[in-house]
Amino acid sequence: MTSMSLSRGHVEVLQFLRDRTAVVFTFLFPAMLLLLFGTIFGDSYDRDGVGAGQVYAASMLAYGILTTGFVTMGAGLAQDREDGTLKRLRGTPLPVVSYLAGKVILVSALAVAEAALLILVGTLVFDMPLPDAGRWLTFAWLFTLSVIACTLLGVAVSGIVKHARTAGAILNVPVVALQFVSGVFIHPITQLPGWLITVASFFPVKWMAQGFRYVFLPDGMKSLEAAGAWEPGRTAMVLGAWCVIGSVLCLASFRWNDKDR
Q1: Is the pLDDT of residue 20 over 60?
Q2: Per-residue pLDDT averaged across 119-143, rounded?
Q3: Among 132, 166, 217, 248, which residue's Cβ finds the most Cβ atoms within 10 Å?
Q4: Which residues, other chains included, contact 239 with Cβ-Cβ below 8 Å and sequence gap of 6+?
Q5: pLDDT at 260
Q6: Hey, how many other C-beta atoms are within 10 angstroms of the C-beta on 10?
Q7: 7: Cβ–Cβ under 8 A, 6 or more apart, which residues?
Q8: DSSP symbol at 46
Q9: Whole-model pTM?
Q10: How far apart are CA 182 and CA 206, in angstroms?
């Protein structure tokens, strides 16, 4: 099963790389937003020597993972279901676990490359300092849990997408909304109404963005978080819970074709 999963992942990566438009927008759009936000707000934001570009570079890692895991997975599954790919695969020895593992390999590869680009832009353009070894360990489990949670939710939500051509529009609605209420595009998050912060706290994006700021920003910046602290333990618990929720939703919503609806 491992070899089939790796083979399927190889196919998924090759298929994605052949779509130049998808490659360009997947990798360049978050970096472009980072450059825009960091440049526009760079002169008006400076807290303890930390500029807007550094804050957005850390926060935008959550945006990149969400779009890569949630949107790419959700739209890809909807496309495979509509064009008959899933129906054909169902008649082969490839188990559903290996098919989904192939998608996870694709998302993981894209997320790693995208995170590397954002960190590169953050360090070279906005002088974002790189963390020490301990914070890199935090980055590792935070990145892993974030990718798993967003990917599983992408699989789950693909079951409600009726047509692949509308998948992007449907999936980007919650993505954009969560960026604004979770402190990715708006910082400090305390500028938002308290009830909106409470709502955002139920979703993983707020904790992802806060966690990445913990990794890359100095400890003095924690006073700008909703709780006035980084809360890495709570971040791990919330993201772990969303991994479990995503798994349950996947089992309940996954289908091979529209007739299984």
Answers
A1: yes
A2: 93
A3: 217
A4: 142, 145, 146, 149, 204, 207, 208, 211
A5: 52
A6: 13
A7: 102
A8: E
A9: 0.89
A10: 4
Residue 137 has pLDDT above 90, yes or no: yes
Specify the residue for token string 């299984």.
260
Quote the radius of gyration of the chain (alpha carbons, Å): 19
- What is the C-alpha separation between 174 and 79, in angstroms, rounded? 19
Question: What are the φ/ψ torsions at residue 46 (nearest 5 degrees)?
Answer: -155, 105
C-alpha 205/C-alpha 158 separation (Å) is: 19
Q: How far apart are CA 130 and CA 260, in angstroms?
A: 48
Partnered with residue 51 across adjacent β-strands are 46
- Please check whether residue 213 is in contact with residue 175, taking contact to mean a CB–CB distance below 8 angstroms: no
| Rounded Cα–Cα distance for residues 71 and 198 (Å) | 24
Dihedral angle sign, alpha carbons of residues 76, 100, 5, 240 = positive
**Could you report the per-residue pLDDT of 79-99, keeping only the tens digit for each?**
877 777 777 777 777 777 787
Of the candidates 244, 75, 2, the one whose C-alpha atom is nearest the C-alpha of residue 145 is 244
Q: Hey, what are 58's tokens?
A: 């850390």
- The partner residues of 46 in beta bridges, in order of sequence, read 51
Q: Which two tokens stand for residue 228?
A: 């006035």
Structure tokens at 69: 């895991």
Number of domains in the chain: 1
pLDDT per residue as tens digits for the range 195-242 = 999 999 999 999 999 999 999 999 989 988 999 999 999 999 999 999
Retrieve residue 73's tokens.
Answer: 């997975």
The pLDDT of residue 5 is: 79
* CA pseudo-torsion sign 172, 174, 179, 180: positive
Of 203, 200, 187, 193, residue with least CA distance to 245: 203
Is pLDDT at 192 greater than 60 in this prediction?
yes
Distance separating alpha carbons of residues 115 and 63, to the nearest angstrom: 10
**What is the spatial distance between Cα 209 and Cα 84, in angstroms, rounded to a whole number?**
37
